[in-house]
Amino acid sequence: MPACTIGLDYGTNSVRALIVNTANGKEVASAVWTYAHGTEGVILSDDPNLARQHPADYLKGAETTVKRAIGGAKRSLKSFDAADVVGIGVDTTGSTPLPVDRRGLPLAFKPAFDNHPAAMAWLWKDHTAIDEAEEITDLARKMRPQYLAKCGGVYSSEWFWSKLLHCRRTAPKVFDAAYTWVECADWIPAMLTGTEAPETLAIGVCPAGHKAMYNKAWGGYPDEKFLIRLDAKLGDLRARLVEKAQTIDTPVGQLTDAWAGKLGLQAGIPVATGAFDAHLGAVGSGIRPGTLVKTIGTSTCDMMIVPPNQKLPDIPGLCGIVPGSIVPGFIGLEAGQSAVGDIFNWFVNYIAPGGKTKGSHKSLTAEAEQLRPGASGLLALDWNNGNRTVLVDPRLTGMILGQTLYTTPAEIYRALVEATAFGALTIVNRLEQYHVEVKDVINCGGIAEKNPMVMQVYADVLNRTMRVSRSSQTCALGAAVAAAVCAGQYQSIPDAQEAMTGLKKRVYEPIPENVAVYKKLYTLYKQLHDAFGTTSWKGNCHNVMKDLLAIRTEARAS
Amino acid sequence: MPACTIGLDYGTNSVRALIVNTANGKEVASAVWTYAHGTEGVILSDDPNLARQHPADYLKGAETTVKRAIGGAKRSLKSFDAADVVGIGVDTTGSTPLPVDRRGLPLAFKPAFDNHPAAMAWLWKDHTAIDEAEEITDLARKMRPQYLAKCGGVYSSEWFWSKLLHCRRTAPKVFDAAYTWVECADWIPAMLTGTEAPETLAIGVCPAGHKAMYNKAWGGYPDEKFLIRLDAKLGDLRARLVEKAQTIDTPVGQLTDAWAGKLGLQAGIPVATGAFDAHLGAVGSGIRPGTLVKTIGTSTCDMMIVPPNQKLPDIPGLCGIVPGSIVPGFIGLEAGQSAVGDIFNWFVNYIAPGGKTKGSHKSLTAEAEQLRPGASGLLALDWNNGNRTVLVDPRLTGMILGQTLYTTPAEIYRALVEATAFGALTIVNRLEQYHVEVKDVINCGGIAEKNPMVMQVYADVLNRTMRVSRSSQTCALGAAVAAAVCAGQYQSIPDAQEAMTGLKKRVYEPIPENVAVYKKLYTLYKQLHDAFGTTSWKGNCHNVMKDLLAIRTEARAS
Q: Which CATH architecture describes the domain A4-276?
C-alpha cells in the first residue's frame, strides 16, 4: 500500500476521519461520529442565539473515528497497514474559539466550569455577541478602518473578538479564568502533537486571518490600544495570544506517543497546521485561480484564490481577504451565505408541508423540478439566518412574496432554492465588480452531490457551468492533502491537489430559456435585496408583485 | 305559530333555507344543500381565474332546502304549519351575472350552450376579466369619472360589465345569443314569482348599484355612448337591460302556483327584492348608523350605513357607495377584503404544516393563541387574493416577512390572522378619514363565531370592542327580515331588525398591552402596504426587518 494520510474533519454535528491514498486521492476508508453533548453535538439554551460545543467531544471524536476508519481500511484492503499513514490534517468549523488555561487545557474540562456554557467552545453559529460585534465594528470604523477593509467592512458576531468580548461582559469569571483563547482549528492539531501550551502552540493563518483580524501587515492581531478601548481586560489578553502563524503546508508538530497509542498510528508522524473546513474543502475540490469553490451545506462558503501579484482592492462585504489562508502563496478570499441547506431544512423540518413524507426534501424536490422558472410567481429572500455576503448583516430575516390562494409547498421550496441561487449570484457579481473573474464554479457538499435540481437552478441563475467535486468529503480530503505535503509526499499544495483531487463527470450547463427568466427575476430579487438590506434604495416596490405576475403569465404560457 | 318568513341564502358552494319566526327572529329550522355541479358547486377550468356556477343548481337548491327546512320545522315544532310562512327573501353572491334569453331563461339551460362555461353564471370570484376591468377603468377615468367615484376609483374584474365585456371578447356566440344579462340576486326572486321575463323583471338597487355602476343620479346604468366606446354590442345591450330598481322592502312579485307546489308553501306570498349576501347579512346583524358590520368568511364584506342627510364625500378605494343598497332610506357603504378565511384555508389546505392533524385550524389556533403579539418577528400582507379595499387591485399577492430558521407554522398562522386584522384596520381608518365614524363593530360569519383568537386579535388591532351577531346565519336572517317587511309584518327594515336581530353575550375587549404592540406592527404593515401597493411610497424598507426584530426582543422579554 502506498502512503496514506488522514483528514480529520470537525463539523457542526459530527467529526469524520478519512483515510486517503496520497498517490491518487482515493478514499480508502472513513468513519463518522456524532458528538455526544447537546442536541446533535450542539449545546443550546433558551437563548436562540446560543450554540456551544464541548471540547471533550473533539478528543473522543478523534479517537473513535480514526480507530474505526483504520479498522474499515483493514477490512476493505488487505494490503493496508496503519503504518502506511504518514500524516494527519485537521479542519474544523470556525470561528469556534475556546478558553484555555496556562497549559492550554480547555476550561470546560475543569470541575469549576463544568457545564458552564461560556467555558465551552463557542460554535461558529453562536450569535450571542451581536451587540459586541456592532461595538467592534463601530470602534474599528473610527480607529482602525484597515482592520475592517479585509473583512468586508463589518465585524461579525460569529467571530473571535465578538465572542471573547461577550464572554468578558456576560461571564466575567470564565473570562478571568482563561489564560488565553484558542480556535478549535488550532487546538486540535496542538493537542494531537502535545503543543497545546501557549509557548509551543502554532496557529493557522486561516482562522486568525479570517476571524481574528490577524494580518502580518499590521503586526498580527489588533493592537493593544484598540483592544483596550473595547475592554481593559481584552487589552491585557493581547500579550497572551499566540502569534506564531503558519500555512497548511507546515506541520505544527508530531503525533505524540500517547495519541499514537490511542489512535493506533505511528508516533512522530506530522500533523498539519489546522484550517477551517471550507478552506480545506476548497483545497480538496481543486481550487485554483479563476475557480470559485462553493461548499454548499447548511450554509455556504464561497472561496477564491488570487495570485499574490494580482492587485487586489478591498472588496466590501467579503468575509475575508487573507494571504495564504487557502493555498499557501495565494491570497485567499472567503465569502458565504449564512443559510442555504438550513433554509430548505427549516421548510422541511419546521413547516413540514403535508406531513413528513409529502414534505420531505425528496418529494418536494421531485415536484419542484417539474416547475418552470417564474411559473409560481414567487420570490424569496434567503435571509432566514441573516446575510453574510455581501450585506454582512445578521439582523436580516427571510421573506417570501407572491403567494396566492393556490401556492403549493413545492413552489415555495423551489422559490427558496432560487433565493439561495440569487444570493450566490450576488456574491459572484460583487467579486467580478472588483476584477476577480469567476471563470469556473466547482460545487461540493451534500446538496451539490445529491440534488441535481439545485445544481441546475444554480447553473441557470449564475449562467455558468456548475461542476461538482469528485469527492464527497472535500474538507477531509483537503486536510489529507495538507497532511501529504507536510509528510513530504509533495512539494506544494497545488502539486498534491493535482494528484489527489478531481471532478465528477456530470456537469450542469445553463439552459438559455431559464437563464432569460432568471435574469428578470434576479432584477426583482436585487430590488428587494437593496430595499430591505441597504439604506441606499430610494424607490418604492410597487412594481415587484406586478412584474412577478407578468413573468408568471409568460412562464405558464410558454 | 306566529308568522314565519324564509330566507334563502345562495353562497359560493351551497344554498341554505332558514325559517324564521318574525316575532322574535328565532330560527325555527334550516337546511343546506351543496350545489351539484363542479367542485363543491364551482365550475373550474385550467384557467385559475375562471369560476362559474350552473343555474340549475339555483332551482334545485330552492326546492331541496325549503322542503327540507319545512320538514325540519314540523319535526321540531308541532305547532308549525307551512301556511305560517308569509314571505320569502333571497340573498346571493355577487356580482354573479348570467346571460338569459328573451324570456329570461338562462342560456345554460339551452342544449346549444350546455356545458359552455360562458353560458353559466359568472361567479363573483371569477377573475377572467382582469384586462376588461382595466379597460373599463381607463375609459371611465377619461370619460365618466363620476362612475368610478362611487366604486372606489377602480372598476373590478369581479363585476358585471367586466364579465360581460370578457364574454363578448372571448365567447361572442354566447354573447350574441343572450338577450340580456341578469344578476343571480335578481334572477332567483324573479324565477320564484314568474317575473323573469325582462318586461316584468324588477332588479335590486344593491346588485345594480354596487356592481353595475347603476345610479339614479345619472340615469341608471352607464350611458350608451360610454358602453359603445367599450364595444358596439355592449352599447346595443344597454336598451335591453332592465332598469326597474327596488329596495329590499319591496316585493318583486308573488310566489307562483308552480313554485308553491314544489316548495310546499302557499301560493301568492310575497318574494322580496334580492340583494347580495353581505348586504342582507348586515341587515341580519342589526346594522345601524355608526356600526360597522364585518362578515368574515373566505373573504370579508365590511358594511356601514349613513343617514341620507349626512354629507358624504366620495371615498377612494371603497367598493361602493349606493343609496338604499343595505337599509332603504340610508346610503349603503361597502368595503371588503378579498381574502381572509381563504388565506387561513390556503395555509391549512395547501401548505398543511406538519400534516392534516397538526396543521388543522384547531391545532394551529390553539398554539397561535399562546403567542404574544410581536414575539414571532413575523409580518404578513393579506393579499393572496389581491386587495379589494382600499387599494382595489387584484394584481397584488401575499407576503410573509421575518422568518428565521426556527419560525413555526403557528407563528405563521398567527401572522396571517394579524395581517387580515391590519387589512381590516386600514379600511376602518379610511372610513374615519372621510368622516364616517366607526363607533362599534359587529362581526358575523363562521370565523367570528368559532375562533375567539381571531376576534381577540381584531379587538387588539382595531382597538375597538368586537361584538358578534347572535345569529349564525345573518345573511339568511337578513333575507327573512326583508321578507317580513314585504309581508307587512313590520313597517320598515329598522323596525323588523329591532325585533328579529341581536348580539351574542360574549364580547372581545382590546387588551392595552397588545394594542400597544400592534400599533407598532401596524406602522410597519402600513409601510409595506404603501411600498408594495401604491406608487406613492418613496423610501426604502431597510427598517422593516430591524424594527420587527426589536419588537420581537421586547415581546419575548415582557
A: 2-Layer Sandwich (3.30)
What is the per-residue pLDDT across A490-534, written as a single tens digit (0 to 9) for each?
999 999 999 999 999 999 999 999 999 999 999 999 999 999 999
What residues does each domain of chain A span?
A: 4-276, 287-468+511-558
- CA terminus-to-terminus distance, chain A: 58
Q: What's the rounded Cα separation, in Å, for the pair B134 and A427?
A: 40
A347 interaction partners in chain B (CB closer than 8 Å)? none
Using one digit for the tens of pLDDT, what is the confidence trace for B403-458?
Answer: 999 999 999 999 999 999 999 999 999 999 999 999 889 999 889 999 999 999 99
Residues of chain B with pLDDT below 70 are none
B530–A540 C-beta distance less than 8 A: yes
How far does Cα A382 stand from its chain's mean position?
17
Q: How far is CA B375 from the centre of its chain?
A: 33
SS (H, E, C) A325-343: CCCCCCEEEEEEECCCHHH
A471 contacts A18 by C-beta, under 8 angstroms: no
Burial class (CB in 10 A: 0-12, 13-18, 19+), B538: exposed
Whether residue A540 and residue B542 make contact (CB cut-off 8 A), yes or no, is no
Contact B549/A395, CB-based, under 8 Å? yes
Across the interface, whether the CB atoms of B406 and A542 are under 8 A apart is answered: no
Predicted confidence (pLDDT) per residue in A144-177, tens digit: 999 998 888 889 899 999 999 999 999 999 999 9
* Among A352, A383, A538, beta carbon nearest to B353: A352
Quick check: do A4-276 and A287-468+511-558 share a fold?
yes
Q: Give the list of residues 6+ apart from residue B486 with CB closer than 8 angstroms, or none.
A: B87, B89, B248, B249, B250, B251, B270, B271, B272
Topology (CATH) of A287-468+511-558: Nucleotidyltransferase; domain 5 (3.30.420)
Query: How much is the pLDDT for A19?
Result: 98
A404: which chain B residues are within 8 Å (Cβ-Cβ)? 48, 346, 384-385, 397-398
Nearest by CB: A541 against B353, B406, B531: B531
User: What pLDDT is attached to residue A352?
Assistant: 96
Which residues from chain A sit within 8 angstroms of residue B531, using beta carbons?
Answer: 531, 540-542
Instruction: Residue A356: list chain B partners with CB under 8 A.
Output: 355
| pLDDT recorded at residue B519 | 97
Q: What is the ipTM of this complex?
A: 0.88
In Å, how far is A472's CA from the nearest CA of chain B? 26
pLDDT digits (tens, 9 = 90+) for B490-509: 999 999 999 999 999 999 99
| Mutation for testing the B interface, residue in A42, A364, A404, A405 having most B CBs under 10 Å | A405
The pLDDT score that the predictor gives to residue A393 is 87
Percent composition of chain B: helix, strand, coil (DSSP 3-state, to 5): 40, 20, 40
